[in-house]
Design brief:
single chain, mainly alpha
Length: 160
């Protein structure tokens, strides 16, 4: 039971999210169905709050003495990611958001994707659904990678 609580908490941490929770679950040989569900729930729990409040809080705190630099960094990262996403995607902005959240690379994920959606004033309901689909995709990719499937496929098809 403790491992599942840890999975839930890890999946809520910005920048780590389920990209850290799934490998943890594999490492401790947890039931992957339950670990996957718990990691997705934990990763999605902050999403509506991020969309609705993060930009407001970051704007409020960007000029504060102790937190200003960090808040400014978060705002700039969200805006940069959002503008980059918008420029590359054209009319496929929601698909791009899903892929941005779903492909587990450093600096991507539900937190950054949701902040970018908020900064770009994307539709709340569509954004949450698309982020959810991206989190599902990231969970599948991380699960397969953590269980060694990619390594096994590479070993089978590697040139000899």
């Amino acid at each position: 039971m403790l491992h599942y609580i840890i999975i839930f908490l890890i999946s809520m941490v910005p920048l780590i999210e389920l990209r850290g929770a799934i490998p943890y679950a594999v490492g401790f040989q947890c039931n992957m169905v339950w670990a996957y569900i718990i990691a997705i729930v934990g990763n999605m729990l902050p999403v509506p709050f991020i969309y609705l409040f993060a930009r407001k809080v970051l704007l409020w705190g960007k000029d504060k003495k102790f937190i200003g630099k960090f808040f400014t960094f978060c705002l700039e990262k969200g805006e940069k990611g959002g503008r980059k996403l918008e420029a590359k995607s054209g009319k496929g902005l929601y698909v791009a958001l899903m892929l941005f959240v779903g492909i587990p690379l450093p600096g991507t994920g539900a937190w950054t994707g949701t902040l970018a959606a908020s900064i770009l004033d994307m539709d709340f309901k569509k954004s949450v659904i698309v982020v959810f689909l991206g989190v599902i995709l990231a969970g599948v990719i991380m699960g397969l990678a953590s269980m060694g499937l990619f390594g096994a496929i590479g070993a089978i098809f590697a040139p000899k």
